[in-house]
Amino acid sequence: MDVDGRYELVVFDMDGVLLDVRSSWVLVHDHFGVNNDVSLQAYLSGDIDDEEFMRRDIALWKERQPSISKRHIREIVKDAPMMKGCKESLRTLKKNGYKTAVVSGGLKPLVEQIGMGYFDVIMVNDLEDDGELTGEGILNVPLNDKGTAFHKVLEMLDIPPESTVAVGNSFIDVPMLKKASLGIAFNPEDQEVCDSADVVIREKDLCRILEYL
Ligand SMILES: [Mg+2]
User: Fold this and answer.
1) 170: which strand partners?
2) What angle do CA 144, 148, 153 make, to 5 degrees?
3) From CA 182, how far away is CA 198, in angstroms rounded?
4) Coil, strand, or helix at residue 114?
5) CB-CB contact of 30 with 22 (8 Å)
6) Ligand 1 centroid vs 160 CA: distance in angstroms?
7) How many whole angstroms from 109 Cα to the centroid of ligand 1?
8) What's the 95 CA to ligand 1 centre distance in angstroms?
9) Residues 83-108, mean pLDDT to the nearest whole number
10) 150 CA distance to ligand 1 centroid (A)?
């Protein structure tokens, strides 16, 4: 419990919040010189689901490198830039007794890059690997339904929404920001996330969130 007892948990989006990257999937696409514009459009228009979206993304990589493992993916993302203040703010939250979680449609190797030990709950998507990538994703966070993943995290920690802060940077995070007692739009990339937030922080320094807790 923090000093004034208002909040117990901070739930973070990853891409664009903990990491100074647009998308962890796009980091890998860029490495292979591919893009997923076609399947992104198909997903956004509802023609394919999250599993098929991940399958098509992974297929793009395997076209370039048929035998690819999660170890390769870790190597590709190992220099992904942290957001300024990322580790400092996570350490401060821990020191002050907060629980922390990450809820992201991004890739688990990126959480490993930040440090799994910073989080009480990690709910992100992953890649199935049996020695090499099978071509299937592991879906924990549907992009169009972050609210359900957010609720699962609260249930796991037995913490109510009134004691929770959510931090996100895009329209995908709106369900989390609306459900949390304090919604913070950080480094926002669209108007929707700003409209649903209690606080908007446009400076790329994650320590700025500490002022509002
Ligand atoms: Mg994001």
Assistant:
1) none
2) 130
3) 6
4) helix
5) no
6) 23
7) 16
8) 25
9) 97
10) 14
Share of the chain above pLDDT 90, in %: 97
Q: How far is the CA of 179 from the centre of ligand 1 (A)?
A: 17
Between CA 7 and CA 25 the distance in angstroms is 32
Q: Model confidence over 118-148: pLDDT tens digits?
A: 999 999 999 999 999 999 999 999 999 999 9
Distance 12 CA to ligand 1 centre (A): 9
List pLDDT tens digits, range 61-83: 999 999 999 999 999 999 999 99
Q: Which residues pair with 39 in a beta bridge?
A: none
Q: Tell me, in angstroms, the distance from the centre of ligand 1 to residue 82's CA.
A: 13
Going along the chain from its start, the domains and CATH numbers come out as 9-212 (3.40.50.1000)
* C-alpha–C-alpha distance, residues 163 and 98, integer Å: 10
Q: Dmax over Cα atoms in the chain, in whole Å?
A: 54
